[in-house]
Design goal:
About 55% of the residues lie in helices and about 5% in strands. It has a 9-stranded mixed beta sheet with strand order 4-3-5-2-6-1-7-8-9, with helices on both faces.
């Protein structure tokens, strides 16, 4: 018996743990039921309760079974407490009071003081429990008898009886044959027994001996109907209805009259009771667990009522955070895409072969004209600044979007403008001679007005456009102006080589720094959400633990376990290993380029220093007639538009409410025009964009982009008349797009 109670200890712990999380009122019925069922599961003894309205003879019946006047009986409702009768070697009574006092007396006379109703028919409020120990062989088998106060007298007594019924293994419901099954008894049968899984019930009819013989048969038939309709769950072969005339049975026992005890029905009832108890004791799980199921179902229902709203709130918070991360991730990808394009354009621009191809002729001529600094500032620096601004534009976009680390300015310095030293003028030169001496290191610009200057410029163009295979080979017929041209070419090549080397190195280092700007971290979980998540976890664990223990006890449940709610982890960017992304480019530019036109002349250069500049947040790129550059600008424009849309989306109340409620402008239903003038204006806008009314806003945007790429004025820079037409066309297209965009808002 002890082993069985231990088997249910985990189930009891799960019930009590769940009860604590529900914060139930101590006086609530569920709280009382949980305590009762917990005590019931851990009680190793088999308990039989005698239950019924007051003055039905409950104490008399128990005294008849015990064979003495152990319990107080009277003509008025007397039992004022639940009296538990247990086995003991001698007759004694133990009473526990609320203040912790334990009263232990021999015999049962003290029951008259603590276990009966007072003059006002009130129960004593200071009594917690009343136990009687009796040396009876039936009790020695681990059986307890429970004498309950009569029902239908006081609400307080009814509440006590209802609670104690849940923790009994077998209920003996005493009926008064003179007033069979009142309305109150029928309600108690349904609410206190059936609805709580208590079906091990035996009906005992008392007072049949007080009826006339002809009435006894009628009452017997009515009793059979009541018993059969209850469908008690007793061992097969046993009836759930017995007749016992309690008072004659007690008198017969006190006198030792076995025949009278048999005629009262007591002997038959006792024999059946002992056999039923013997069988049920071996299968106590079948008796107790259905009652646990009823209480556990209420606990689970109450737990779900607390879990589900918190779970919904937590899930909503997690979904919103996930949506924000997704939007930011998309923005990061778009910004990174634009940045990569801009860096690639700058890297290509810094490539030595590209620099030489694009700038060397003009730079060499400017050097020969002694006008290199002006050319450097007006052309080279301007182009470099524009490309650097294009790179930084994306980083400022990232900083505005993510607010992580403010970007540093990208500063690729230009080498100091080169200076050259002219070789001595040949003494035999007469075809290109000029009056006056050539000043060494003084430049050659002063010659341009004469034939030598013109010859030098011509040689520069010739040498740069002619693919001379062996630039180091001295020509026997090389003229002075060709020597000067070669010196200028070699000097600018060295200049661009240094610009390429140091520019690509600065760019590679700068690109590593951009990773700190184009990144974002998720927000920390608010304390109130963190507390709710912790509370939710406790509730779910308790719910699942109870469900697990019910399953182990083979108690069915209508519920499924909760999946564990994941802990909140603020998004953090993935850790990237430090690496040099463009080592091949750096390796190439760090190798000294062999100059096609390099001569043995020594270039006199000062140490390289940076031309400092602090560019503001990058402006829009200036118009360019180059179709490839224009296409890049269109792509950047589309990326800017997408990022702007996402920013607006993140700030909108709709996004804060729920990501799924966000609808992009392309999915919105168009507003209906109110006046005929508005209708005409919208119809004309569709016509300008080459669309039919009723198309989606996505189609409107696509048509607009197509027309912009077709009629952008930058495409007609060299054709003033067409450029003017394109400007007018773009004005109409912009107006049409604005009208339709307002329509879809």
């Amino acid at each position: 018996m002890q082993k069985q109670s231990e088997d249910y200890q985990d189930l009891v712990n799960a019930l009590k743990s769940a009860s604590a999380l529900l914060n139930l009122e101590r006086k609530s019925q569920l709280y009382q039921d949980i305590n009762a069922i917990s005590n019931y599961l851990t009680n190793p003894n088999f308990q039989i309760a005698v239950f019924g309205p007051f003055n039905h003879g409950k104490s008399t019946l128990l005294n008849a079974i015990l064979g003495n006047r152990t319990l107080p009986i009277d003509l008025i409702p007397t039992t004022g407490a639940a009296i538990t009768v247990k086995y003991g070697t001698d007759l004694r009574t133990r009473i526990m009071l609320r203040d912790g006092t334990e009263i232990y007396r021999s015999g049962t006379e003290i029951l008259q003081q603590y276990a009966i109703l007072d003059g006002n028919r009130q129960m004593r409020q200071d009594v917690i429990s009343v136990e009687v120990f009796c040396p009876h062989p039936f009790l020695e088998r681990g059986i307890e008898l429970l004498d309950l106060p009569g029902t239908n007298d006081r609400e307080e007594q009814d509440s006590l009886v209802r609670d104690r019924l849940l923790s009994t293994d077998l209920v003996v419901q005493l009926l008064d044959a003179r007033k069979l099954m009142t309305l109150g008894e029928r309600e108690n049968l349904r609410d206190w027994l059936l609805d709580r899984g208590i079906k091990t019930v035996i009906f005992v009819a008392n007072f049949i001996n007080l009826l006339e013989p002809e009435e006894q048969q009628q009452v017997q038939n009515r009793l059979l109907f009541v018993a059969e309709s209850f469908r008690a769950e007793l061992p097969p072969g046993f009836s759930n209805l017995y007749r016992v005339d309690a008072l004659p049975a007690l008198r017969a026992r006190l006198k030792g009259d076995a025949a009278a005890a048999t005629s009262s029905g007591l002997a038959t009832f006792e024999a059946a009771l002992q056999n039923i108890v013997g069988i049920l004791q071996q299968n106590r799980g079948d008796v107790r667990l259905p009652r646990v199921q009823a209480i556990a179902s209420q606990i689970q229902l109450n737990l779900k009522a607390k879990i589900d709203p918190i779970l919904s709130e937590i899930n909503s918070f997690d979904e919103k955070q996930k949506a924000k991360v997704e939007v930011k991730q998309k923005a990061a990808n778009l910004i990174q895409q634009g940045l990569n394009t801009s860096i690639s354009e700058l890297r290509n621009w810094l490539d030595l072969s590209n620099l030489l191809r694009k700038y060397q002729t003009d730079a060499t001529v400017a050097l020969a004209e002694n006008n290199f600094k002006t050319w450097q500032i007006g052309t080279l620096k301007k182009d470099l600044m524009e490309l650097q601004r294009s790179v930084m534009k994306w980083l400022y976009q990232a900083y505005e979007f993510f607010r992580e680390e403010r970007p540093e300015d990208l500063l690729i310095s230009l080498p100091i403008e080169p200076q050259i030293t002219l070789p001595p003028k040949p003494s035999n030169s007469n075809d290109l001679s000029e009056p006056g001496a050539i000043a060494v290191g003084g430049g050659i610009g002063w010659l341009l007005g004469g034939p030598v200057g013109a010859a030098v410029v011509g040689s520069i163009s010739y040498l740069l456009n002619k693919n001379i295979q062996d630039s180091e080979e001295k020509s026997a017929k090389e003229t002075y102006h060709q020597q000067v041209a070669k010196i200028c070419i070699a000097t600018t090549e060295d200049y661009f080589s240094r610009l390429s080397n140091q520019g690509l190195s600065v760019l590679a280092e700068y690109e590593q720094k951009t990773k700190k700007v184009i990144r974002f971290t998720g927000c920390q979980e608010p304390p109130e959400i963190a507390n709710k998540r912790k509370n939710l976890q406790g509730l779910q664990n308790s719910f699942n633990q109870l469900l697990q223990e019910l399953t182990k006890a083979k108690i069915s449940s209508n519920y499924q376990p909760y999946r564990e709610t994941p802990k909140y982890t603020a998004y953090s960017p993935p850790v990237e290993k430090e690496q040099r992304s463009y080592s091949k480019v750096e390796e190439r530019v760090n190798v000294s380029a062999s100059s096609t036109y390099r001569t043995s002349a020594t270039s006199q250069t000062s140490s390289t220093h940076r031309v400092s500049a602090s560019p503001p947040p990058p402006p829009k790129a200036s118009p360019s007639p180059n179709p490839a550059e224009l296409e890049t600008k269109f792509r950047n424009w589309e990326l800017d538009e997408e990022i702007a849309r996402m920013k607006a989306e993140m700030r909108s109340p709709g996004f804060q409410a729920n990501k799924q409620q966000n609808t992009s402008q392309s999915n919105k239903s168009p507003q209906q025009p109110k006046t005929q003038a508005e209708k005409d204006k919208i119809t004309r806008a569709y016509t300008i964009l080459g669309l039919q009314p009723g198309v989606s806003f996505t189609e409107v945007k696509q048509a607009y982009k197509t027309l912009v790429k077709k009629w952008h004025p930058d495409l007609f820079v060299a054709k003033p008349q067409l450029q003017q037409q394109a400007q007018e066309k773009m004005r109409l297209v912009n107006e049409a797009y604005t009208i339709l965009a307002e329509k879809f808002q």
